[in-house]
Write a structure and sequence with these properties.
heterodimer, A: alpha/beta, 6-stranded mixed β-sheet, 4-stranded antiparallel β-sheet, 9 helices, 10 strands, B: mainly alpha, binds adenosine-5'-triphosphate, binds magnesium ion
């Protein structure tokens, strides 16, 4: 279980996170929604200890990520898989080397076994025969999927996805939704998924939380969010330009 | 007015001191990781090939032309004393003690240092360094250590190549163009140049290798602000690397007595 308590972070005097409280349940899929620039990526980077908060705590099964030392942090990080918004593939490595990287660094598997797992994970994200390509040769959506494969290659307990479907066509998006649901059921993976893709959110979410103005303003199951009366939530979920949220 | 100026100087100095401190810390960590397993040889060899093998061509050209011009200039000067036979020790000593290590350092900083800063800067801005961190891989261990090792090992080797190219370049000009006796040219080198002179230069080049790699990695690691920021990291690393090489060259020359 991940417990975020009163998390605050500002950049150059601008409060991006202004007291975020959120619980991400073990083995559940928590979807975080919110407008562009609200700090969703910043929030997810705090969870894995890439950014240090100005104040507040993040408890991962009781361990406070904000207080751990580098060595201890790395032990916790080995339980995580993360997909960056821009995929963050290593551009000096092939697709196979990218996906196999965590295995090579943290396990004693030989090259053949690594390649076998890489092939399996690639198939899971709907790619085949791209092992020897370089990231520069991939389309945006393919990069995203290679990033997804890398994030899940160690079968992590906790997966953080920053907009997993933002560059995928609807068919591919739906198969990513299936992938998330399958791994969650098979391995009881905990997911924190940032997305603007409301269809995806409705399909996979156990909980949906909306980040707005530096706080989680509403949170609930899909059904609860669908019937939520908050005009901000209504406007966001229905995707309307008119309402309390302004388009500029 | 004066206060403003002093303030600006102070801020600048503060920045330089801070950068030097952070760089020293980064270097300290990189060195530590070089001795703590697991050490990945593959990355080290890759960097050695990039810093060393791929710089050979540039270093040979630099060394040869420097040796040629040294022979020409020293011939014109020494002729006035009837001491043309001392051209070859002049070339060899200048190359071994000063120009070999310094010119190699400057050329390789321009070639490999800027490329390192660009590569690491791009990795920083496209979150590849953050990705390493999330995968529990220390980015200093993974990126900086192999580059520092490559600098320390390859700079002396390149310096030997530069020294040798310089002597050959000097031979071409001195013997072929200016008519010094071939046996005199090689014989005088044997008479005057010792192994100490060569090691003297190699010790310097070792330091220059550390400087180039550390400065380049530091600039790349802390790059910010898009493509322009990567460019700034590259130029910054070349300017700072070159200046530090020249400054430390003086310092080392004054500390090493022979
Ligand atoms: N390293 C940083 N330094 C300074 N400001 C930052 C940094 N990272 C993020 N910000 C600022 O924090 C705010 C939130 O950024 P963030 O990337 O978290 O938005 P987001 O909710 O993920 O948006 P999107 O949906 O567009 O990805 C932005 O205004 C951004 O400028
Ligand atoms: Mg984002």
């Amino acid at each position: 279980m991940i417990k975020i308590i009163d998390l605050k972070k500002s950049f150059q005097g601008r409060d991006v996170l202004d007291g975020v409280n959120l619980t991400i349940e073990k083995g559940k899929i928590t979807v975080i929604i919110g407008r562009s620039g609200e700090g969703k990526s910043v929030l997810i980077k705090h969870i894995i200890g890439l950014m240090k908060p100005d104040s507040g705590r993040i408890l991962i099964d009781g361990d406070d990520m904000t207080a751990l030392r580098e060595r201890e942090l790395n032990e916790v990080r080995k339980r995580f898989g993360m997909l960056f918004q821009g995929a963050a593939l290593f551009d000096s490595m092939t697709v196979a080397e990218n996906i196999g990287f965590p295995l090579v660094e943290h396990t004693n598997l030989d090259d053949e076994e690594v390649l076998k797992i890489v092939g399996e994970k690639l198939r899971r994200v709907g790619l085949e025969g791209v092992e020897s390509l370089m990231p520069a040769q991939l389309s945006g959506g393919m990069k995203k999927r290679v990033g997804l494969a890398r994030a899940i290659v160690m079968d992590p307990e906790i997966v953080l996805f920053d907009e997993p479907t933002s560059e995928l066509d609807p068919v591919m998006s739906d198969s990513i939704a299936d992938l998330v649901l399958e791994t969650q059921q098979a391995l009881h993976t905990t997911y924190a998924v940032i997305t603007h893709d409301i269809t995806l959110a409705y399909k996979i979410a156990d909980r949906i939380a909306m980040l707005h103005g530096g706080r989680i303003i509403e949170e609930g199951s899909v059904e609860e969010m669908k019937s939520n009366e908050n005009p901000i939530v209504r406007q966001f979920l229905e995707g309307r330009a008119q309402g309390p949220l302004k388009a500029y | 007015m004066i206060m403003k100026f002093l303030e600006a100087v102070g801020r600048r100095a503060d920045g330089v001191v801070n950068a030097t401190g952070s760089m020293a810390i980064m270097l300290g960590q990189a060195v530590m990781f070089a001795f703590v397993p697991p050490v990945k040889l593959r990355n080290i060899f890759k960097q050695m090939s990039f810093v060393g093998v791929e710089s050979v061509y540039v270093v040979i050209l630099t060394g040869t032309f420097t040796g040629m011009v040294l022979a020409l200039q020293s011939f014109n000067a020494l002729k006035r004393f009837g001491a043309e036979s001392l051209v070859s020790p002049t070339v060899a000593l200048s190359m071994a003690r000063e120009l070999g290590p310094v010119l190699t350092g400057l050329m390789v900083t321009g070639r490999a240092g800027s490329a390192m800063a660009t590569e690491l800067g791009t990795m920083r801005l496209t979150e590849q360094i953050d990705a390493l961190v999330t995968m529990a891989v220390n980015p200093v261990r993974y990126l900086v250590t192999p580059r520092v090792i490559a600098g320390v090992t390859m700079f002396p080797l390149l310096t030997i190549i530069a020294d040798f190219s310089g002597v050959v370049g000097g031979y071409v000009v001195g013997v072929k163009f200016l008519g010094i006796n071939s046996a005199v040219y090689t014989g005088r080198i044997m008479d005057f140049v010792t192994v100490h002179d060569i090691f003297y230069g190699l010790k310097k080049s070792l330091v220059f290798g550390v400087i180039t790699a550390t400065v380049a990695c530091f600039h790349g690691f802390y790059a910010k602000g898009g493509a322009e920021g990567v460019g700034r990291a590259a130029t910054g690393s070349v300017v700072m690397g070159s200046i530090l090489i020249l400054m430390s060259d003086y310092l080392l020359s004054s500390l090493m007595t022979y």
